[in-house]
Amino acid sequence: MEVATIKKFRFGRKKEESKGLFQGILERIKTLKEELYMDNDLLFILTYMASISTAQISRDKIFEKTSEKREYAPSKYFSKIKDLAQKWHYDYATACELIARKVKHERVKNLLNRFSNAISAGEPDREFLEKEWKVFKTVRKDEFERCLESLRKWTDAYTALTVSTSLVSIVILLSVIIYKVGDPAQTLYTTAFFILLISFMGVALLYKSVPKDVKTHNLRIKSREQRIVAKWMPVSLIISLLLIFLMSVIPTFFNPEMFVFNGIDLKGFGLISAGLVMLPVGFVGRNDDIKISKRDESFTVFIRNLGAIVSGAGLSIAEALTKIDQKNLGELKDLAYQLYKRLAMGLDPKLCWEKFIGESGSYLIHKLTSIFVDAVDLGGDADVIGDLVSSSNLEMVLLRMKRDLISSGFISLVIPLHLAMVSLLLFISQILTIFTKLITTLFSQYSISGEKLKNVPGIVGGMNIGIFSGIPLDLLYQYTLVVVLIITTANIFAAKIVKGGATYMIFYYGAILCILSGIAMIVIPPAVSMAFTFPSFVEGGGG
Which residues contact 21 (CB under 8 A, 6 or more apart)? Predict the structure, then answer.
């Protein structure tokens, strides 16, 4: 009985330890994600604090309201400062200094230390926060532009890397056929592994160099396009992968004669079908991305005008919405009208604004709208608040436009380059297939072996014609497909990373590149076979 109890206790303890380990890993991942976007949230939280400080509220209220903004990662530090000051009766200068010692993020640490010094020196909170907001906005802009310059160089490097890996795969393929050293399968699959490693190392370097920026929010309420994408994206992904495996990968590795009709290999239809399945999701997602960009641009004018009208005319937000020139709202026109109708009907303003934010689909609107609403509700200067919020929004919109210049040039280069590299690989592969079949036919017709040709004096003996005999064509097809899939996958992720946006952009670029790769796999081999035929050579040899 005691032994059973001890075993049960040990099992329970191990279970709790494993559960604690799993929770620790999840917490670590969450912390890393927060740290990744800490600089963005730092700009938003400084905008929030500078905005609510215009209401001339107390320092206690500033820290209390800031600690409630859980959507901003730095809010947890301000929550700890508030607890030290209000529950443990530390003065705010000491509380800021104590928390700063525990913070690992350098910019948050420096901000808290400067806040501590400003409080000790008696500097008004509003002046300090506005000054910090302006300084950080400048610093953030400079850092973003430096990341863009680095990204520009890495995109050039990635295109060179793509060309190099494709050429290396072709050179290795030719080398294996010309010089029969070792096991061809082992050599080719090792090469494919290194191509995979190098390609995704390039993708990782692109990810490291891009500015960390989010474009879509993750709220429960979403835009119409985001709801469609969220519903169909998992289904589209599963079907696409199944089509590639069932129509391309499995036939190539286990039954090469499958999907071959009239001498034309149609295994590329697996990639084309996968691309067509991803295309609707990618197209809807692309439309959502374009609309969000337009909404973010219009939001700058919308929030500035709204603040000016509320402050100048002394109207409520619902009344002020009717005074805004609708022609300047662009993509926000319908959302602003829906917001006005809900507010005019007397619905809960908080729910009305949540609906407006959710249906916009925009990360910037999600982060900045609540700043304006909270600060105005606290009695702040709506005109000043509108300027602060619109300025922060405009800064990010302009920086994204600079990023779009780089990404559009990169994608315009990668797509035709991808098609060229895949076509070149398929061209060389088909040439080798033709020569292999030709030499095999001649050798079987005249009962010639490679060993006999070595003893022939002169040019024929030195040509090493026997190199093409005995090359496994199945291995050639498998290697070609694997390299095409690696290059396609790497370019899909590279295009998405450089462009930015939500996950659905992977489906947009995936659809384009998969369809192009599949078309090349179907068209290039027959075209090469038509161009390179040797009937006269074979017939002459028979005579």
Answer: none
